[in-house]
Amino acid sequence: RYQLEAARRRRGTAPVRSMREFSVLTAEEIKAKRAREGLAHLKPTTASSAHSAAYAAANAVDGNPATYWSSTFADPAWIAVDLGEARQLSHVRIIWETAYSKEFVVQVSNDGQTWTDVFTEADGKGGVSEIKFTPMMARHVRIHCTRRGTQWGHAIRELQVFE
What we know:
Blueprint: E1 2-8, E2 16-22, H1 27-37, E3 45-47, E4 69-70, E5 77-96, E6 101-109, E7 116-121, E8 128-148, E9 155-162
Antiparallel strand pairs: 1-2, 3-5, 4-9, 5-8, 5-9, 6-7, 6-8
């Protein structure tokens, strides 16, 4: 762990100081962190809708189980994450809020426009969905929710994507 202190000086005024802490991780530490948090952690997300600003798509990849994404109270809905580069993907974990999807499809894409179905759920129960599929290269992952399991929206506490 390191601390970086910077000061901005302007003639005739007191310096403005800023201090930041950061860590330099080894390749092994980065690999362990990805295995724990998944590849979607803090990556850009989009969604078809959000119940309100408090339930934004970014909440599903923030690593905080107290926050979550929720669609409006309608079918269908989707949430997608851009991993930033194509990766070999084989596993998705969805941690649902009480409002979950009864029917949904996990899709992958290289361009965020053309999607390939890798898993279809016709009788979801909520809780945690551990989804494993044949490894494939993709940059984007989308959960396309087609039927709600409750009267509320489709809601995901955490969406994790793994190699």
